[in-house]
Records
---
Amino acid sequence: MLPLLAVLQGIMRNVKRHKTKTETEENDKNKEEKKKAERPSVRRKVKRQKHEPHIHWDRLCLLVFTVVNVPLLAWNWKHLKQKYLEYMEPEYEFKTFSFDHLSALSQREMNMKKYAYNYSTTHIDKRANLSRQEFTDVYDGAWPVIITDVVPKWGAYHWSKQFLLKYYGKDRITMKAVDGRLDNAESLALPLELYFKHAHEGTFRRWTYVEDELFIPTRPQLRRDVGDCEYLKEDYFQLFPEEVRPWNAMLLWGTPHSRSSLHIDPYNWTGTNAVIKGRKQWKLIPPGQDHLLYVKEGKMSGFPLECHKYNSPVDLYDLDLNTYPLVSQLVTIEVDQLPGELLIIPPGWFHQAYNPEETLAVSSQVMNSVNYRVVLEEILKAGNVPRTGWNPSLPYSSPQEQVQEVMSRLPKQLLKRGQAVTDDMQDQIQNGMKKKPRQQKRKWKKSSTWSQWSSDTSSG
Ligand SMILES: O=C(O)CCC(=O)C(=O)O
């Protein structure tokens, strides 16, 4: 700033000097011209000179100075500020981050003393009229909880199979069909009306599970019916560009015996699961036991913005201890979830759900000030943005600003890719396999009849 002011002063001084010099020169000239004008031969020449435009050097200099220096000044200010911050502290690097579950648990134990509630430290509490503060103090990021008084207020709570059939019967929904063990699954896109007819069928070794990530988000009326939860209103996923924002509100509609894999959610977010009809049984694994779960490294989720996938090949509802002997050491927490109940699962907890009867549910997610750093870690770990070259003041800014900063650094081609993943997925569902998927791993077969799928799998 100071050097620039000095330059400005210098220029002004020169302009002044130039001005006085020009004035004296002009006076002398005028005198001479007067003399010449007395001679008729030069009278015409003098007249012409009188009409020539007069250049205001001072104003011109000031204009040039302003045009050149204002942008320079703006750039310099930013640059100097950056240099100052770099001098005070070197460039910030996102080091690998891991959530400290033990300290979250000990904090929870301390906070529990503030409230007159008989908390379980080995099971899952079912709560109503829970205050936001108590949720933050005792459950968020630390321990799963079932909320019983939220879902009954949602429009979705009143969905029936008939309602879905009436308005969306012809639309295709995506599902996995299992014949044998859980890992022998096939992906299908079938008309809802076809699934509707068979949704009550299912045996322990042969079942089907609608796990459709786009069905609700792409139908505004259904999306509106999925309400929110007072405790999870803060959601930084809303700061993600739309092209790479994780799909939200997955439709889960399973035949009896259908089940999810044993997994941690994408981005390691805080997950929610609302049962609308039927019943779910859950096995939840407190963190720190990943070494007992045979999780394969390096698997990717295929989400619009890539992240690692943490799936265990173990089926806790169909144990194979010969192949996975370490599982016998696992500590699991079990809970049954009834219609109208909302389960909230903290990051880092492997979980698997089993539908003992036909069950309709919706799962969602949030990124908030408790888990934002875990989610950012997954984004960095997947190589979406480099870990180096960040503004040193970043760690001191708010979680929201940090998320915004990371999002602003996503390369344009990632946004394009994100949109392409969603478009491909929709194309495949609507048009079968006509369009070749780009970078996407999920592929749905377009069977048009249930028996076609059944005969396909039985012959295979
Ligand atoms: O209800 C289910 O099948 C489990 C869903 C689930 O775990 C999830 O959405 O992450």
---
Amino acid sequence: MPAIAYVNGQFVDFAEAVVPAEDRGHLFGDGVYEVVRVYGGRPFLLPWHLERLGQSLAAVDIVNPHSEHEWVALIGEAVRRSQEAEATVYWQVTRGAGPRSHAFPAGAPHVTLIVRPFTPSPASQATAVLLPDERWSHVWVKTLNLLPNVIAKETARRAGAEEALFVRAGVLTEGSSSNAWFVRDGTLFTHPADRHILAGVTRRFVLHLAQQAGIPVCERPVGVAELSFMDEVFFTGTTVEVLPVTRILADPDALFWQAAALPADRPATLVRDLSRARVLWERTGAAVSGVAEQLQKMFTQAVERFRNYEDVL
Ligand SMILES: Cc1ncc(COP(=O)(O)O)c(C=O)c1O
């Protein structure tokens, strides 16, 4: 079955799915979004995604066009029409369309929703590169403005890595599309869910799994200087689930990762050349089959229970 699209109140043929040229999502990135993973035909942790959508909409003062019940029905209907058991549902709510003018227009928000079949990446480990967290100061809002994230991911890809690990004022915040976790002596560390990270739904679920497993958790900012003391690093996210990191690269000339503020220089391109990047952190053999793998396994088992209509919380 091809991907499914829903635009402004109607399911449409995917190839015919178009948004108005003056949609504010298109003009300004004036909107917010969510992505949910579908396992066995069922959207995983959907109530938590809807809760965060409500927070994002409230943050940017867009009226939530649907009740939770309506969202659940709409997403369920989209998945049903797609006939996909393994998929992602992406949906966004923009401030609607209107003549291009910065101040908010009158009018209703626009909803666009896409269901696509999803095949997980075969890679069960990742390499990361350190990059400056040059995003705006409200990254906790899941807005459509992802240019810094997109540039960071592409920079990582060109350096042969799967993910960028952001550093803000000497602190490791999160990945370009994932949350970051660190393990030292069996204790989990992750940045608190404040304004400097997106409070991942997977992060929330992994906190729950850690509690179930009796793994101690410390939600506090981790400094780059602490990295050398960490036994394990991993990322979490809706599509990557739990992804252990084997090495972290950094450009030894780019001092952003120690600096308290971003350098004032204007690079010619934001897609940095990382050909001089060196290994800053590497996982040693002793840590293999550690906490990351334990949580990865617990996550997979929870998904299996979910596929079988069992409770996961
Ligand atoms: C910047 C950022 N952090 C964290 C995440 C992980 O969030 P979730 O677990 O809800 O997918 C994402 C997911 O897109 C993200 O873009």
